[in-house]
Amino acid sequence: MVAGEASGDLLGAGLINALKRRYPNARFSGIAGPRMIAAGCEALYPAEKLAVMGLTEVLGHLRELFAIRKDVVQGLIAEPPDVFIGIDAPDFNFGLERRLKMAGIPTVHYVSPSVWAWRQYRLRKIVHATDLMLTLFPFEAAFYEAHHIPVRYVGHPLADALPLVPDRAAARAELNLPAAGELVAMLPGSRMSEVRVLADIFIEAARLCIAQRPGLRFVAPLATAATRDLFTQRVRALAPGLAVSIVQGQAHAAMSAADAVMVASGTATLEALLLKCPPVMAYRLSPLTYWLAKRLVKVPYYSLPNLLAGRPLVPELIQDAATPATVAAAILNYLDDRSGAAQLAASFTEIHHSLRCDADERAAEAVAALLTRGRAGLLSSG
User: Of 308, 260, 269, which Cα lies nearest the Cα of 141?
Assistant: First the structure.
């Protein structure tokens, strides 16, 4: 098993535990993070070796990454496992899977890259690399089925982990926020580049909201100390009197506590759905990147709630549409339209149910079925 980031490490640990219930004597090894190691995976390399972000950073580590992949390939071909499972990290794992599949080792890839959105030519690479794709979302599985690629939809572990009805009172108590009164969360992204772009838009939007609703409070959970400090500086510069609690981490508590959320694109929009917190998604790219993206991306929506619903459930404010005025108007619309917010929560709950499939067990079941088919093929050929 090979995982490259914290999210992959979490998926890998859950899958290991589920497989051990089926195969108590199974042994696991690969590139693993602390959760996978705790679940019983022997780490040939730590997962952090693959967690390299950014073009220049990747280029600086290319020689080491190629050496690691070559070492793993040689080791696994010399002592073939019953199955190889690559978890996310597609740039590293697909090349690894292709070599192992050519050597006759069954390969599984867990977490689809966004081929359904852009760069669909990568499907050829997936066909040659992977015996089975495990997807987190149903629309991904439908895409692979349409292209005749073996796939199994397993659901999303976050949907399993998060409650169907969030405890808003407990979340507010955890954050030391008043139990009564309206609250809006602000999540301007996990990366410094995102926060630099969206912080000012969100803070100015908060000021516009306050002008309409003077008692409104805000909470801003930032992913790292660096992004928290940057956001704090921008609040002091733009709105020193803003009633905002700035914390590090605790994004789930913030969205559980809030009546609406300003949020960057990405997994946070899914988390907002699962926590039943109405999101206003805003995002800005560099002009050149946006120009390219408009020509390459082939999906009608950008946010996961809208992709999962197949219709525009939540506002998507992209590029020039992402302004303080548009963000504030969308937030105030949520706060003013309580019946609409209730209908949105019902739609979110329906989607939550559809994603709540016991992902660890379903993924393990799919891997077990692949192993069974492989053994049956060997017996029939013998």
Answer: 308
User: How many angstroms separate the Cα of 135 from the Cα of each of 11, 114, 120, 347?
Assistant: 12, 11, 16, 22
Task: Spell out the per-residue pLDDT of the chain, length 382, in tens.
Answer: 999 877 889 999 999 999 999 999 999 999 999 999 999 999 988 887 776 543 444 455 677 888 888 889 899 999 999 999 999 888 889 999 999 999 999 999 999 987 765 667 778 889 999 999 999 999 999 989 999 999 999 999 999 999 999 999 999 999 999 999 999 999 998 888 889 989 999 999 999 999 999 999 999 999 889 999 999 999 999 999 899 999 999 999 999 999 999 999 788 999 999 999 999 999 887 666 656 666 666 667 888 999 999 999 999 998 889 999 999 999 999 999 988 989 999 999 999 999 999 999 999 999 999 998 865 544 343 4
3-state class (DSSP) for residue 104 = coil
| Contact assessment for residue 8 and residue 33, using Cβ atoms and an 8 Å cutoff | yes
Domain of 181, CATH number, reads 3.40.50.2000
Do 366 and 338 belong together in one domain? no
Does 161 map to a domain? no
Instruction: Kindly tell me the sign of the dihedral angle through the C-alpha atoms of 222, 223, 225, 227.
Output: negative
Q: Is residue 163 one of the residues assigned to a domain? A: no
Domain that holds residue 227: 168-355
3-state secondary structure of 32: strand
